[in-house]
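Example 3.2
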Amino acid sequence: MNQQPTGPTATHDTEPQTARGKVLMHFSMSLDGFVAGPEHSMDWTTGITGRPGLEEEYIATTGAVLGGRDGWDVGKGEARPYGDAWEGSIFVLTHHPEDAAPARDVTFLDCDVAEAVQIALDAADGKNVEVLSPSIGKQLLELDLHIAPVLLGDGIRLYDHPGSSVLRLETVNSPEPTAVTNMRYRPVDRITTTTKES
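Structure, written as tokens:
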């Protein structure tokens, strides 16, 4: 029998988002650790809901966004974070900015990650910078995750670094920052079947 952790458990959500000039990774993630499906597809997020008011918090506190070229190209430059409700600068880190299609409020950068972050922070003017690229984000690592009750099985992982050593994290806003967060899920099909049989 597996020994279950005892004692206080980590919180299930963070405090309301504030604009403090932070640089953070912000993703919806499947339960098995993917932030995008194969070919960077995001159709799996349809029907997923979040905490009421959470999106509005990010709209109010985000001053700039930093992303990667692969995700940008898949979106064809049309998708803005939070739709047209958010106004701000978007920076796309790429080794070949010369062949990128221009888009409103978008700057293509060819520099190292540290310089790109500083440029985005300057543009954010005291608000937060959201990093929407796993490959950029794993070099920075403060995570804001919204874990969706979905198992994708394939796609783009949040953090993929084969051969690396263990990277230990602590939970923000928790009385026990190293405690396990306990969650329980079951397939939707099972819920539907059980309801019909009752």
